[in-house]
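Instructor's aside before we start: the two examples that follow are unrelated to each other. I chose them only because their records fit on one page, so don't look for a connection. First example below.
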Amino acid sequence: MFNLLKYSSIILTMLVTIGPALANRQPFFDDPESPHPYLDTESPQWKEATAIKLPAYPEPANLVEFFVDIPNPRFRYFIDSRSLTINPDDRAIRYTLVMQSVSGGANNVTYEGLRCDANKYKIYAYGNSLQNFSRLNNPQWQHIKRTSPYPQHRELREILFCDSNLGYEPKAVAAIISSLKNSHRITGTSLF
């Protein structure tokens, strides 16, 4: 009986001590929708470069395939290596993304930006059937969520484009291209 009373008082003391802290806790790191201070650090003084020039439409010879680690992928993913830039003023990585359907070869082409530090992406333009870009009116930066239906942005940020050892700074363009080339899987399907 003495041991039961002793342990009950210890448990009660622990609950009283840590209970309020647990009730007001921050979301766990693995909570798919929670912002995390180390993964989503919006800088209040950040300002986007003003003149975003659209690149030339991608050519198959310049596309580098990369692997997105998801079960039963519906797309193959490619980055146009010639469109890949890092703006020195705003540190955003801009690139052309090509998503090819594994079932029918249909392509989705977008010109996008990715901010390593803020965990965000932006689509500036969509490719069209005339093989040129149609610019979006007033595109907005979107958070990259762990449960997003667009897993390529998470893969690009967490593994291929950004250096997590340096506080999520962009890698150099040559290092990004090397990361892309080392991530792809070899397939026998043709592009375009």
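Example two begins here.
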Amino acid sequence: MRAAAGSRAGAALLRPGFLALAGVNAALGVFFGSITVAVTAFTTERHIAYAAAILFAVPNGASLAGGWLYGRQRPRGGLRVPAVILCSGGVLVAVAGGPLLLGAGLVVTGLVVPAIIAVSDVLVSVLVDRSVLTQAYAWTDTPSVAGSSAATSAAGWAIDGGGARNGLLIAAAATALVALLACLTRSGNPPAGARSGNPPGALAHSGSPGEAEATPGPGGSRTTSRRRGTPRTRRAR
């Protein structure tokens, strides 16, 4: 019986929605790996190699700002909205003829990368059973690392053959792939129970002291006790 339950839990890793999430992470890794090589080649070709440091620093600052803004609100649309914005930044990267337009594209992509990573992690916890959650995160993280490594080599080969523009096009194609795969993932806001890494419907949270734990009480009530505090009882609706 336990083996059957484990088999059903593991089957969630083969669902199209979860595989699409793994693909999103792989495509994001391709973007990271290719854009690093492409930006360096882009500035070197234009004899402004010093600008590479600026072009890397600005989007990193945008990522910090984007993560802060994302944490202060409750965005709607799951992965689709930030993925489409990422793709629009990829278009700017693809058509950039100078450092200013390239920098603008990198700022746009940097703003939404934290949201994509955060929503992707939450959706993993929604789609799979807790018994295989560690395995699920390995399945999504490994493609990202592999994609980044492969894209670095591929972008270098493409740049040697046709210039920095080829590397930028690979990065832009990766953002388009992220947007495409995001459309195959679960849309909408994650359930409240999944926000702390628990599956939908989970009421007990394992976190910092002071978080509430809900347990069934007599007569259909729920006794909500805090780790450090006085127990409270409320009637379930």
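Confidence is low (pLDDT under 50) at residues 1-6, 187-237.
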